[in-house]
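Chain A, query sequence.
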Amino acid sequence: MPRLPSLTQSFGGSGRAVRVALAAAAGFYPAAYLMDRPVVALYALFTPIAFGVLSSLPGSGRHRASSVLRAAPAAAALVALGTVLAVTTWAAAVGMLLVTLALTFGAACAPRLASVVPGLQLCYILACFPPYAPAGLPERLLGLFFGATALVVGELLLFPSPRRPSYAERIADALDLAAHTTRLLLRGESVDDATARRLRSIGRDLRFSQQPRGCRPTGAGRTDRALAQAGSATRRLLDQLAALGQLPPAPDTASQTLLHGIAATCSDTATVLRGGRSVRGAEFLEEMTARFLDERAGVPEGRGDPPYALLRRRSTLLTVAASAVTVRTAADLATGGDRAVPGLPHEQFWYAGLPAARLWLVRARGNLTPRSVVFQNAVRTALGLALARLVAGSLDLSHGFWVLLSLLTLARTTAVGTWSAVRSAAAGTLAGAVLAGALIIGAGDATAVYAGLLVPMMVIAFSVGPVGGPAWAQGLFTLVVSTAFAQIAPVTWQLEEARLVDVLTGSGIGLLCGLLAWPAGARTEMRRSVAALLRATAPVVRDTADAVIGRRAEQSAEAAERPTAGSLRPALHQLRIAEAAYAQFRTEPALQSDDDGPDWLAALNYGSRVLNGAYWLPPSQGVSGFPPDAQRWVETAGQQVAAAALRAADLPSPGVTFRLAPLSPVVRSATSPGARSLLVDLEVWLHALAADLATATGAGRPGPADATYRQGR
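Chain A, predicted structure.
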């Protein structure tokens, strides 16, 4: 099951614990004591827990309050659905299956939905258990309203969190640094090691793993796709600038003009991402793109026959310009623009003209495969909760919703992780049950004692749990539910016996699902998805190399316009599947063998680099002047890298090492400046791919790989 926020991971500090405790009390006490409505009190208590504890809402208080408000209508609908389907155990179990599938799979398309999915699931769980009482639906909805309202007020007024910068603002800050660095290069200054490290560090900070959950642009819509692309291109831009700044300066007019354009593009894009208006207007992007394309077409007249080293620096500068144009275009799409820029590779921005429904369908269809961790998590979670509901109903367990609640909070994406959580939780629940039983026996029917203990008990449970681990969290939560239920109805020590049985039952079902359904989590999928990615990129490398020198194979009408179009879609799809697996892999407990295995990040960098080269390297118009020896070098080098990718796909594989033949003798034989420039661009790209493959398979960095193309991800 996906690693849902457990009771040990739900809070960022005691402030949130106090907010949730007070919100739960604000609805629970009036309903239980003034209105004498136990059902209203129960839902008023668990609604703040559902969206304040189980759901790890990111962002500021205003952002979290907005998430609760958005989720409230869906929560009410799920309460109503659960109330209706509680008529039979089988109906409730089937409903649990479908609801969980829809919520968990849909979370892949909407990051804000992902943060509230556990809370929404709990709303259905509470309502789908006996007694079957459709007439009590208004009271359930009233309790939900009380709890949600109190939580929203608490998020807005109590211990307000400082506003964190959005992902777009983080990109804008990084672009300001890029503009500043570019101006240093314009003045002829080099980039020292400290500045280069800062550039790469800021780029690494833009990785999704460094962003709070719910604030990552992982949605299926155009805005999120464009922001994700802008972030990726910005990381690449910073890394390329760090490499460019450590090369010898070349203060020719064309380079200076391009650097001016890059600095202006970065500054203008930062303004747009912060919500401002473009200072230079929409036409500036077209001008920058035209300037880049002119420079890509060849070396301007009057520059003479540049040496090989100058051509390599020029290639590096062009990669920076390509990244700047990509960022600017993606930022324009993310902020509502839809103007097509002539000359840009349309495959790179394929999503720009598609409606939102089509983009959601593309995301859903792309993950409808057993190799997708999104699909695996949705199926594993849905089957586990449905089975738990069936078992709890068939065995007529008292307070059976605790079975599903324990499964929801303890299940992990690996069997090993689930077993570790279950062991600790079982011990904690047993200790908590003993203490709660002693409290019930000692306090008896003195509800004032339970009323006085409930709020401080919740604050302690929701504060200590994140520090103490599953044992502390489950043990303290046992005390919380005991003091709450003792105020709703007369209880005995047998309530703790029922909770212990329910928790152990849910834990057992979670372990069974973990053992039978993808027990290795993302580890197995990393090997499979990376292998598929490497195989899918091999034809892209060959097609790109052929397209650079103008070679055309027989292909479809669509691919004829862009020689790599036919092979790009499978490679892009496999890259997305592998990135999702890597994101989950990073959340799972590390094993000792993980340190000795392939470098998955280098493999993802390789896949991203392949696609970027396929977008930008092939010239939009043919370039002549490639002699036979240059054509042979291109064909051989492309096949070498493609063959190395296929060898690396046989994981675990020995380190992939090879050395491309030197290009410098071949460059001199090219008869046109454009041909020489394209050959050097292709060489830099292929060497970078070779370096990534060597790093991914543990063989080091072969050949004269150019760090210009390194991309932190």
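The first helix runs from residue 14 to 34. The CA atoms of residues 559 and 565 lie 5 Å apart.
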